[in-house]
From TrEMBL:
It holds the Pfam family V-ATPase_su_f. It comes from Aspergillus clavatus (strain ATCC 1007 / CBS 513.65 / DSM 816 / NCTC 3887 / NRRL 1 / QM 1276 / 107). It comes from the Eukaryota. One of its GO terms (cellular component) is membrane. The chain crosses the membrane at residues 7-31, 51-71. The lineage of its organism: Eukaryota, Fungi, Dikarya, Ascomycota, Pezizomycotina. It is found in: Membrane. Keywords: Membrane, Transmembrane, Transmembrane helix. This is Uncharacterized protein.
Length: 88
């Protein structure tokens, strides 16, 4: 199987997706627990559970991006290794 995206795009997507998963998971858990810094004031949403559900949906989408891009990076590493001259 050949990779669909370039090496740089695959690794960039892996790093960005990983950071997005971590950051959005923290934000989603804070909204889910109705943290006073994120809910309850006049300009903030009152239903923290609804906000947390949409944030966790974004986490699932980023996890799918992470898996796809990590697989693309793996395909690049595998294709690079097959073309190398081996001394064994």
């Amino acid at each position: 199987m050949k990779p669909v995206v370039s090496v740089l795009n695959a690794w960039s997507c892996v790093v960005i997706s990983l950071f997005a998963i971590v950051i959005l998971s923290v934000l989603g858990s804070l909204y889910q627990r109705e943290h006073h810094g994120f809910t309850g004031s006049e300009d903030e949403p009152e239903d923290g559970a609804a906000v947390a559900a949409s944030i966790f949906t974004a986490v699932i989408i980023y996890a799918c991006f992470f898996v796809f891009c990590a697989f693309q990076a793996y395909l690049h590493m595998r294709s690079r290794r097959d073309g190398a001259i081996s001394l064994n």
